[in-house]
Every structure is written in C-alpha cells, then in structure tokens.
C-alpha cells in the first residue's frame, strides 16, 4: 500500500514522500477515512415485508418529510454502485487520496424495530457482507458490524460474531426505542467492547424530535448533531466512561454539538448536584478519552473540535458515498490550516494507531 502524503495546512509543504515528524526519514502514515459506508441488499431482503417494517418506514417518513424523501430516494440509487462495488470504491478512494477506509453498514440497516430472531439475522448478515466486501481489498479496507441495541442481551454475541468475521468492531446508533446508551442493560456490552479492544462507531440514525424537523432536511442537519450530543452526554454523565475507561469509541459528525458547547456541561456538573451525581470528572475531560471524525463541514468548527478534544483524538471522515459527506476529505482538513503535526495526525496517524495499521 502506497501512503498518500498530501500537503499540510498553514505551516508549509513537506518534501515529496515525507511528513513532518521527529524522524525525518519515516514514511508517511496512510491516509485513513474512518467514516465510510456499505449498502447491504441482503439485510433489506431479510426484513422486507415483516411486521414492524411498514410502521418504521412511516415513522421515518414523518420525521424527514416528503420533500426530503423525494431527494433521498434518487440520491441513494445514484450512490448505490459505489456503496457496493469494491472496484468503484477503490477508484473513488484513489481519487480522494485515501489509502484505507473503515467501512460500516449504512445506518439504514439498523432496523431496531426488529424482533430477536430477525435482529440476529440482520447483524449476522451485516457482518458477513461487510467482511466479504473488505476481503476483496484487505490492504485498503477494514470493516465494522452491527449490534441490536433493541435487544441488549444479544449485543455481546453480535459483537463477538463481528470480531470473529475479522471486523474491528461495530457501529451503533445514539439510542434504541425506549433505551438510552446509559441504560444499565448495556453494561455487559461496554465491558466486552473494552476487554476486546473493539472499535465502536457511534453514528445516529433518525432523531426523536420528529415532525419538528420535517422540513428543509432539518432531520439530518439539526437532528444528527443533536443525537450525537445527547448520546455522548448519556455516556459521560451516567459514568459509563468511568466504569469502562478503555472503550474505543469514535463519534461521527465531530460528536455533534457537544464538543463545541461542552462548557455548559462543565458548568452544570460544577453547579448542580444532580448533574454531577454519577460522573467523576468534568465532562470536558472525557472528550480526550473519545475519538471524533472530522466531518463538521466548517474549518472553524474543526479547529474548535481539535481544541476541545486534542489533535490526537480527531480522525479523518467523509461519510462516503452519501451526499451529506465530502468528496474531498483531505481538502476539507487542509482548509482548517492546522500545524503540520496536527494535520498529519488527523489525516491518518491517529487512525493508523487506533486501527492497528502497519
């Protein structure tokens, strides 16, 4: 694998084939995109026509609104080839200057409405399909599976199945119906993830603000950052991160609103006994235990995220191949005009260490 070494931000251009490093002769780290998706027709075939599917689709339609659905349907059909064909994926990666993608199932495959038997099939098929996809280019692709958050008792087994398939971990949403990530029922799952070193990718799907966001694609532009902030707050304030400090959790979309508004959480923790009851340290301190992708669509926000979490906690993300992503993740990172070392850390150094790439 030849590592791409694009130019840094504000501090000048590195010599070709080199990056800013304490070891000037060290090869550049690979450019790693940790937010990329696969569409899995086999999963949709399993759930087609089952009780609950129509109700789930109706809920999604209400939450998004007809105008957004009219755009999303054709968009998904357009990106489908790149989300399923490895050759097209690799060609797109080459055009972007990306060496490695961490591929996760589209969040549309969560199907948290499904019964236990169906949920087991969904997670098994998702793991198998993602592993097979990545196996076509093992030096370029790594993968994640799914767990059924609606059935916490199945979560550990689903995680183990994903790891057995050679995947690095699993993708989860911000909540399941009737359950927040702070629910004690998830304790065995967090413990197993921490013990195995599995990667957890927190990627919301949908927003419980419902019809308030059913115009102008607010369901995504406002809903996703909100869901990220709520989910991370549950993990922090409930003490999950205190009890499982070794968790390797990546939050999509830069963690939503939380990292850039963490001061309000810190103030509540300090000023109110109820806010600080289950959380051992200032909420802002936990940002340095988490990872965040760089997909915030604004160089000023990206710099603020890095300031809040640290340059070693932010990873390149594109949301490939969907329209709310970026076709040029390295260019978006370059626009933040970071110091050389931070640029290369986010471009790939941090992810290479986290994912165990050589």
TrEMBL record:
Q: Which UniProt keywords apply?
A: Lyase
* Region of interest called Disordered, as start-end residue ranges on this chain: 1-32
Q: What residues does the Amidohydrolase-related domain cover?
A: 32-357
One GO MF annotation is: hydrolase activity
Highest taxon, organism lineage: Bacteria
Which Pfam families does the entry link to?
A: Amidohydro_2
GO CC annotations, alphabetized: cytoplasm
**Gene Ontology terms describing biological process:** secondary metabolic process
Q: What is this protein called?
A: Aminocarboxymuconate-semialdehyde decarboxylase
Name the species this protein comes from: Streptomyces sviceus (strain ATCC 29083 / DSM 924 / JCM 4929 / NBRC 13980 / NCIMB 11184 / NRRL 5439 / UC 5370)
């Amino acid at each position: 694998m030849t590592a791409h070494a694009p130019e840094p931000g504000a501090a000048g251009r590195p010599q070709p084939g080199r990056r800013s490093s304490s070891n000037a002769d060290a090869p550049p780290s690979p450019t790693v995109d940790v937010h990329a998706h696969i569409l899995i027709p086999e999963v949709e075939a399993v759930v087609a026509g089952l009780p609950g599917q129509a109700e789930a689709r109706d809920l999604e339609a209400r939450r998004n609104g007809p105008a957004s659905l009219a755009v999303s349907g054709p968009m998904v059909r357009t990106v489908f080839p790149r989300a399923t064909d490895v050759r097209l994926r690799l060609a797109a990666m080459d055009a972007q200057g990306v060496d490695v993608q961490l591929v996760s199932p589209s969040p549309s495959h969560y199907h948290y409405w499904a019964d236990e038997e169906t949920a087991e099939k969904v997670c098994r098929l998702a793991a198998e399909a993602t592993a097979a996809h990545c196996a076509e280019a093992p030096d370029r692709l790594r993968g994640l599976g799914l767990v059924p958050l609606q059935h916490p008792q199945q979560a550990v087994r689903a995680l183990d199945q994903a790891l057995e398939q050679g995947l690095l971990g699993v993708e989860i949403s911000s909540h399941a119906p009737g359950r927040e990530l702070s629910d004690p029922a998830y304790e065995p799952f967090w413990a197993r993830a921490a013990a195995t070193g599995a990667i957890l990718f927190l990627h919301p799907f949908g927003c419980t603000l419902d019809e308030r966001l059913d115009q102008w694609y607010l369901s995504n532009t406002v809903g996703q950052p909100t869901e990220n902030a709520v989910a991370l707050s549950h993990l922090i304030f409930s003490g999950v991160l205190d009890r499982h400090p070794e968790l390797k959790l990546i939050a999509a979309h830069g963690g939503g609103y939380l990292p850039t508004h963490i001061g309000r959480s810190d103030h509540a923790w300090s000023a109110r006994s109820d806010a600080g009851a289950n959380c051992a340290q200032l909420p802002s301190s936990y940002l340095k235990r988490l990872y965040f992708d760089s997909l915030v669509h604004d160089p000023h926000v990206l710099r603020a995220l890095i300031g809040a979490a640290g340059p070693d906690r932010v990873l390149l993300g594109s949301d490939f191949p969907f329209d709310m992503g970026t076709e040029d993740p390295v260019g978006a990172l370059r626009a933040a005009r970071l110091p050389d070392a931070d640029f290369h850390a986010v471009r790939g150094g941090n992810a290479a260490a986290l994912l165990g790439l050589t």
